[in-house]
Amino acid sequence: MNTEWRYFRRLLMAAGVVLFGYVAWSIADLLPLVFAAVLLSVLMSGSARLIRSRAPIGHGTSIALVVAALIVALGSFAWLFGAQLVGQLGEVFQRAPGALDAFGSRFGFDNAASRVRDELSSNPSGGLLTRAASIGYSFVGGMLDILLVLVAAVYLAADPKVYRTGLVLLFPSAQHARVLNAMSVTATALRLWFLGQLVSMVLVGIASGVAFWLIGLPSPIGLGLIAGLTNFVPMIGPVVGALPALLLSFAQGGSAVIWTGLAILIIQQLEGNLITPLVQRRAVQVPPALILFAIAGFGLLFGWPGIILAVPLAVTCMVLVQKLWVRQTLGGQTSVPGEQEGAA
């Protein structure tokens, strides 16, 4: 009887693992949004903790102050630079067809923009209107996803103990302290990584905007913003962020192409060899090969959201593997990112 019960219990565990995998696969599109909300709530909780260390207020009040500060900061930025930024970004997209034609003519492809436009509109199943509607739906869906992430992050940051406790209860009671500690170290590592990445993004955006202004490219603020934002994704992001500036430099002609390419190369070399090493002294350093495989792997699993969140997902996996498997299971001696900072 005892043998039959053990067999039945193992069968139930195997069925549970299969069911969990099926559910996870079915909601694969939701998982990046959940992780994005957790990441944002971790950043908000860290900012709230910094406020509480300097003012005698409670957790809820500090979270409210963080949310209010974000709203005020974004509102002030939009009021001061919004119109100019939107205008310059619009100018970038308006000039894109001419820049694409100029780029194509350099390599023997006349009317490149028209060819791209014809290719996009040659869908026999629906044509241009169907594609436009699809883009519209995608844009609305993207805005709703962002709103969902923001609201969920506020709820997670407002009362994190409820969600941490609920997650810990899924593990055996003997592992509760271990899981809680791993979650705390992971949160610290994510905060350190984001702080380092934010510094790098800001410096790259400012340097790119100034360089494009000195070269004489149109809309240097918009181009600098694109370069800074795309730098969030290592390796792929800088290449994508450089394309609009290069296309517009071809439209300018003359030496603008050479100066633009040289400026992009110098900025990326400074970012990779000076800015990133200096920032990562107190941040989390992810090996380049791991970043590359993370972008490819999470991109295959979750699409573009997986590519955008590949590095913080890699940081999370790296911390959990080093702490829970290498150190606590195998008994190896290894340093875990975020552990010393969290203890301090």
Automatic annotation (TrEMBL):
Protein's name according to its UniProt entry: AI-2E family transporter
A GO CC term assigned to this protein in UniProt: membrane
Transmembrane stretches, start-end: 7-25, 31-51, 63-82, 135-158, 192-215, 221-243, 250-270, 290-321
Organism expressing this protein natively: Rhodopseudomonas palustris
UniProt family annotation: Belongs to the autoinducer-2 exporter (AI-2E) (TC 2.A.86) family.
Membrane topology: Multi-pass membrane protein
Subcellular localization: Membrane
InterPro entries: AI-2E-like (IPR002549)
Keyword presence, Iron: no
First-listed, main subcellular location of the protein, grouped into a coarse class: membrane
GO biological process, any: transmembrane transport
Record keywords, A-Z: Membrane, Transmembrane, Transmembrane helix
Domain of life, per lineage: Bacteria
